[in-house]
Amino acid sequence: MLTDHPEPELIFLSFTVNDAGSTEITVTKYLPLIEHSARPAEFCHTLLVDPSGGVAVVSAYTGKLKVVVLDQNGGYDRDFDASYVVSLFVPC
């Protein structure tokens, strides 16, 4: 689950069904995304997961991405930052 600004974070949840048939949702990981010097994303504040389920990319700030590597069960394994250049020049 991806929360919005002013303090965005990625929250990993686990869903289980016990023997009695009741369900339980638990938080397995909180991943804070806050960047104090970055401008919040205006057009693309989202989370995209690769169809293979191995990698997720989070966009919360302009020019910055958080890449999350997922384990075999779709849970958190590790993360790293990536950046991209936003160009305002559009060639004719």
Structure description:
Helix content is 0%, strand content 49%. The protein is an all-beta fold and 92 residues long. The protein has one domain. The chain has a 4-stranded antiparallel sheet with strand order 3-4-5-6, with no helix packed on it. Strands 1-2 form a two-stranded antiparallel sheet. The chain starts with 8 loop residues before the first strand and ends in a 9-residue tail after the last strand. The mean pLDDT is 84.
Summarize this, please?
The protein has strands at 9-17, 23-32, 46-49, 55-61, 64-70, 76-83.
Note the topology.
Elements: E1 9-17, E2 23-32, E3 46-49, E4 55-61, E5 64-70, E6 76-83
Antiparallel strand pairs: 1-2, 3-4, 4-5, 5-6
Describe the global form: elongated
Radius of gyration: 16 Å
Please indicate the count of domains: 1
The CA-CA distance between the termini, in Å, is 40 Å
Strand order of the largest sheet: 3-4-5-6
Structural class: mainly beta
Q: How many beta strands in the DSSP annotation?
A: 6
Mean pLDDT: 84
Low-pLDDT stretches? none
Q: Determine the strand fraction and express it as a percent band.
A: over 45%
* Biggest sheet features: 4 strands, antiparallel
User: Can you give the helix content as a percent range?
Assistant: under 10%
Q: Tally the helices: what do you get?
A: 0
Give the key terms.
about 90 residues, mainly beta, 4-stranded antiparallel beta sheet, 6 strands
